[in-house]
Amino acid sequence: MMLTAVVAMLATPGPKLSLWETSILALAILVASAAAGAFNQYYETDLDARMRRTRNRPFVTGVFHKSPAWLLLIMGLLAVSVAAAAYFLNGAAALYIFLGAFFYAIVYTVWLKRRTWMNIVIGGASGGFAVLAGAAAIDPALGPVPILLALVLFFWTPSHFWSLAIAQRKEYAAAGIPMLPVVAGDLAAAKTVLANTVVLVSLSVMPFFYGLGWIYLIGAVSGGGYFIYRNIKMIRDPSPKMAMGSFFASFLQLSLLLVGTVLDVCLGS
Q1: Do the Cβ atoms of 4 and 258 come closer than 8 Å?
Q2: Exposed site from 73, 81, 169, 238, fewest CB < 10 Å?
Q3: Lowest mean pLDDT across 70-84, 96-110, 116-130, 205-219
Q4: Looking at the 3D structure of the chain, how many domains does it have?
């Protein structure tokens, strides 16, 4: 979240932030994201205990003992982050930082995760809000490039997380979490991932037509093309091994997109 926000800040036209202001932006998003993640682990100890991937988290093992003090600390971290962004940056950036944490902690974790396979789709808006926060720190009006990058993050999350969910379907089913592969099956989920990724990659190309240059386009196309390739392999064989290959390809896709953006801005292509 922090890295995407800083990259969006760099890609947004306007007077650049000072090193101090950039540090405030990065730390505010980092701490707000940490608060949301901490709340997720505090709230979901029953689910985390049922899954091998999460059963060693500190609230599950008893290293941390659940108490109202933890909730006060979590809310305090979020409040400090939002207040710092509002004071040192602007109200729009602070609002997007708050919305990012709220969507992950409340909309995704509390309202949707246990109820619908759409949980990660709607909850995935938290990543888009981080992008908008970075852009709003420069220009609260938000031009087409940051909006498109926010949409990229929004569509990236389902492809990323559903790939993992295919690999971990049995554990999600045992935990009673209605992730897409649990509800629809691995093959249907893999086809949905591909369709979503095609939309994601199409959107990721669009900033090229609104000011970003060839270096960005190369990063977007190469990473996106590889992600689609791994999605196709997952459809042919929706096994945990292929699903994890798609999952890791999502990191490569996003990394090449972000690195391409930074290089494009810094080299002035």
Answers
A1: yes
A2: 73
A3: 116-130
A4: 1
